[in-house]
Amino acid sequence: MEQLVNTVTDTGFLIAVFAAISAAAVVFSLGASFMSGGTTVKQRIKRVALEREKMRAEEMARLRGNSGEQQRGSMRQAMSRSYMRNVVEKFSLQKAFVDEGTIEALARAGYRGQGPLTTYLFLRFATPIVLFLLAFGYLSLAVFADKPLYLNALYALMIGLVGAYLPVLILKNKTLKRQASVRRAWPDTLDLMLLCVESGMSVENAFRRVAKEIGAQSPELAEELTLTNAELAFLEDRTRAYDNLGKRTGIDNVKSVMTALIQADRYGTSVGQALRVMAEEGREQRMMEAEKKAASLPPKLTVPLIVFFLPVLFIVIISPAIIRVFANGGLGGG
Fold first, then answer.
1. Dihedral of CA 202/60/184/113: which sign?
2. Which residues of the chain carry a pLDDT beneath 50?
3. DSSP line for 286-332
4. pTM for the whole thing?
5. 265-297 exposure pattern, b = at least 16 Cβ within 10 A, e = fewer
6. For residue range 135-164, what is the model confidence (pLDDT) as tens digits?
7. d(CA 275, CA 270)
8. Angstrom distance (rounded) from CA 74 to CA 82
9. Where exactly are the structural domains of the chain?
């Protein structure tokens, strides 16, 4: 008993006990922190997954709502597209007119899906025939009624051949207008995306928020951003969504920004830094374009000034002298 008391009261024994207790406390604290940290990370991952599922459900509900609103319109268009589809399939127009860039060209103009492609192919086939018949009837009955029919048919054939490129020109005009709208609103879009990302939003939420804000300025760009947001929620590879946005718009500025986002997502760099650099470049480019237009204004005003301004100026200057001469009896008057 006395030996036990001496051992317990021994200084070395007490130091060893306290050291063991301290080591156990340190190990327990570190283990608890690691366990709580792992739990926190798991909770964050779970919240992100739930948020993504929520976004996906919202996008699906929105798309289903739009499809429900458009269902009556699509029902009315079903009959008109049925005979177009029959004509396209009967004459194999898809082999004759469709190449690798046709679908992308339609997408750049805002037409996606099989319906617009069928309409485009039908117009490529029917437009020259309709123009030939109309031109032949008009030339034969009104303009060149006294000319031979083969000559009128030749003129009408030329008009029909020119009309074969009419759908292509309309599609190109639609594409240019859509790209102009996207190009005007793109610098502001980059600024808004930069603000959203730096405030802590994810890329998906940033796209969704910016699409709502930019809709009043450019509905076309808002549509593209909404579609990209849906692709980010649906596609397994996020880089495909960025790449698809660049292909659908066909604008170099958009493609460069999407390339920067792809690199940031692939190599783990800062998305905010990439957006900040691209936003600065977009503002500088917009300023350069404004300076270029301002520099080209004086040469463009030269011809209108000569044609419209100088004659009026000469009339205003010379008219009082001419009136005074005629009031004094002409040049030979006293």
1. positive
2. 37, 67-72, 74-75, 334
3. HHHHHHHHHHTHHHHHHHHIIIIIHHHHHHHHHHHHHHHHHHTTSTT
4. 0.67
5. beeeeebbebbbebbebbeeebeeeeeeeeeee
6. 888 888 877 777 788 888 888 899 998 888
7. 9
8. 12
9. 74-164, 175-295
